[in-house]
Write a structure and sequence with these properties.
Blueprint: H1 4-33, H2 37-70, H3 80-97
Helix pairs in contact: 1-2
Length: about 100
Amino acid sequence: MADPVTVFIGGTIIFFVLWFLFSLILSRYVKSNIEDEQDKSTYGRMTIYYVTIAAVVMYLMWLCVFLHQLHPLIIPDLETEIAKEVAASHRDDLVSGL
């Protein structure tokens, strides 16, 4: 299994590169479709802002999912006696089912 720090750094770099590429490509696309010269820079900057907001939100979602898989918060916490009783009842069910 890969080192978690390496995966984190790799994922961060991937999001940064994708953000940069999509910002550049989409802002140029939007600027090419705007006819008014005064609006080109406004819409180009607005496109970069929207792509940045989307990239940050997706990165935070990826980071939360990554950290929850790395350190799960839900751990079975049964007391020993209860766990033995549950195991015994299931063992009897399995044996009678055969």
